[in-house]
Every structure is written in C-alpha cells, then in structure tokens.
Write a structure and sequence with these properties.
The chain is an all-alpha fold. 55% of the residues lie in helices and 0% in strands.
C-alpha cells in the first residue's frame, strides 16, 4: 500500500473534513472513493467547467463566431453559400 500526500489550506481541510464527517467518511475513505470511481468508470464523477453555464458558453461562442459567420447583407450570405 502506498501513501498519498497533498497540501491544502488548513481552513479548507477543516471544512472538507467536517463535510465528510457528516457523510460518515474520513478524508482517506472519500479520496479512495474518488479514485475508485475514476478507475471503474474512466471519467470524473463531475464535469469540470469554466464556471459558465452551457447557455453562457453558447452565447459567448456565438458572439465569437464559433458557430458561423456574420454577414452584412443577403448578397454576402449568398456569396458564401456559393463557395
């Protein structure tokens, strides 16, 4: 068996330990559950995000031209279609 060590803010650690305690878990048990889930399923038990909702990201992508082009006229649009 090997050991795992990581640094974290003492207040963050205390808050996390208190929450795990409410669930009847130790830090060690919760960490083992996390890694067991990842190994069994091959993905994280949550979806990492940029902090934006799907709608916010879609709006940003649309504003940045990710989904298509902006046209100044119908003629410009027709020219693009004929390419």
């Amino acid at each position: 068996m090997s050991q795992f060590s990581m640094r974290m803010d003492p207040n963050f650690k205390k808050e996390t330990q208190d929450n795990f305690k409410k669930m009847g878990l130790s830090m060690s048990a919760a960490t083992k559950m996390f890694y067991t889930f990842v190994n069994k399923h091959g993905y994280l038990p949550f979806t990492p995000t940029t902090g934006k909702t799907e709608l916010e990201q879609a709006i940003e992508d649309a504003e940045n031209g990710i989904y298509g082009h902006t046209y100044n006229s119908v003629e410009d649009f027709k020219k693009h279609l004929s390419k």
